[in-house]
Amino acid sequence: MVESTCIVAGGGIGGLTAALALLRAGVDTRVYEQAPVLGEVGAGLTLSRGAIKCCISLGLEAKLRENMAPAGDFAYVHFSTGARLPAPPPAPAKPGEEPDDAHIYRPDLHAILVDAVRAFGNDRIVLGAALTGIETSPGSVGAQFADGSSAKASLLIGADGARSAVRRIVFGEGPPVFTGKIAYRFMLPAEAAGDFAAVGGPACLFVGHGRVFNRYLVSRGRLLNCVALMRSEVWAQDSWNCPAAAEELLAALPGWHPSVLSLVRRAPPGKLIKWGIFAREPRQTWVAGRVALLGDAAHPMQPFLGLGAAMAIEDGTVLGRACAQLADLDAALAAYVRLRVPRANAVMRLSRTQGELFDTTDPADFPPKGAPSHDRAVGGFEEEGLLF
Length: 388
Ligand SMILES: Cc1cc2nc3c(=O)[nH]c(=O)nc-3n(C[C@H](O)[C@H](O)[C@H](O)COP(=O)(O)OP(=O)(O)OC[C@H]3O[C@@H](n4cnc5c(N)ncnc54)[C@H](O)[C@@H]3O)c2cc1C
Description:
The structure is a single chain. The protein is built from 9 helices and 19 strands. Helix 1 packs parallel to helix 8 (308-325) and helix 8 (308-325) packs antiparallel against helix 9. It has a domain at 5-175 and 280-379: FAD/NAD(P)-binding domain (3-Layer(bba) Sandwich). The strands form 4 sheets. Strands 5-13-14-15-12-17-16 form a 7-stranded mixed β-sheet, with helices on one face. The protein is 29% helix and 25% strand. Flavin-adenine dinucleotide (FAD) binds at residues 9-15, 32-35, 45-46, 130-131, 159-161, 165, 183, 185, 227, 275, 295-297, 303, 306-310, 312.
């Protein structure tokens, strides 16, 4: 077991999972989050089978099962006719594998992780601490924060999201690049969603020409999560996300099934949010000395497979296990890179491919043969491969 201390910059799903895994491995860890209060964006999240397996290995099974719902028979549906698109039957689960992906309300997952980290001490999460500087020396690393405070540890994890300050400071990279794609997201109370499940069942993805509309229930059936993804030539806003009018989204969905349009019309005023989707090219390493990147800071991915948070959860779990099983921190970091970079970079590429397939495939022919969304291995987590 590694005897060390760790600073985690960023208290999102990735940073908290890493902190929990490291604390369980005996590493004295503190999370530094820039926001003055903890929270997650009020939206849904698909948890892959692999991410669920990781969370279970971190002692979160009971809380997770209370809060998540199996994705079950998730249908692909034609955007205008509402007909179910024929898809290959899912491959059977392997022994010991979760049978299904699951849906969860992001704030619920975040709260589960916060509680689990704080079970090691309330002071394990420091709020209002925006990392602004890093100083490295052999065997240790120092962090400076915007309020003038500082901290020192033997390891620093940059889990500070797609616009990572750690990545900029340590690897000298600029901001991520606009992909030409945007997402519209909103949530509806289930009782305000009408008879939405009559077309496509309770959880489904409507597939159009270069546009998709995903919807499923979260928060024990209380809320319907809706996300539309599409191309957009311009991203005029400086901000990462901004409110949009329902009319704007309706205009982007000409000829779509009334089931979808009626949901958009019901979006609570001011709660329809437009996001630009930004990406980076895959990096071959995420470690420099005693600084390591994790989650979106390491591999921001396009959301077409819904696996970004799942990869962050896998990253944190693997890093914790490497620290638990290896005596030396540098060896643990080398194992982390060896085990995680190929997997996460492959999923980054597949997420981009999936987005391109939505652009180029006639909806009636979706999913085309070999679509990443229908490869069961993509969302799995192969523990047998974890040889430290
Ligand atoms: C439309 C859309 C749908 C998605 N759907 C899914 C899905 O269904 N399933 C899935 O697995 N993934 C999904 N994703 C991807 C997922 O949201 C991200 O991959 C995931 O949230 C990344 O987690 P993270 O902890 O690495 O980063 P973040 O969630 O971005 O967290 C970073 C944290 O760091 C903090 N921070 C930033 N800068 C600093 C600083 N300088 N100092 C201290 N703290 C700092 C931030 O405040 C934040 O709390 C989706 C993404 C989009 C855009």
